[in-house]
Amino acid sequence: MQAHHEQSMARPGGRPGATSRSGSAVKDRSIGAQVLGLAVFLGASALVAWLGALATLNNVNGWYVAADKAPWSPPNWVFGPVWTVLYAAMAVAAWLVWRRRAERSTPALVAYGIQLLLNLLWTPVFFGLYPVMGTAALWLGLAIIIALILAVTVTVLYFGPISRAAGLLLLPYVSWLVFAASLNWWAALHN
Fold first, then answer.
1. H or E segment at 9?
2. Residues 27-48 pLDDT 10s
């Protein structure tokens, strides 16, 4: 009886035998906990976006206006909507992993936290330090964004086995970061 109860409590819906794709038991979280968890992940993404916007707004209309930008650089207005969608997708992906309570959720969420920290670091380095450090800030920004691409790739590799949807939600983010790195690289070479 105890084994049946533990088995039925170990996966969503209380049905015996359900496991995650990785084969580990999945434990339910209450609806209230799930909503709170999603709000926390969305809030963390919003905070990183807001802090990044502070560094960007002060400089995008400053030194960046006259900067030599890559010929493939989109207009400035594109960045806000793209980043908004990416930050929301990142938060939902992390939430999907968190709510599964899978065996590998902790290292996956640590990887997520590292990439979020690198994301937070890039904007003030690239935009905020350029007036102080010049081109060196752009090269430092390039090193950070390359580390960020690697960190997000690792996060995708952790997320995918826990939640395929979570891993897939991060793929546009990786693509955008590679694109942003190309813009950063051009800026470092030509400014």
1. helix 2-9
2. 567 888 889 999 999 999 999 9
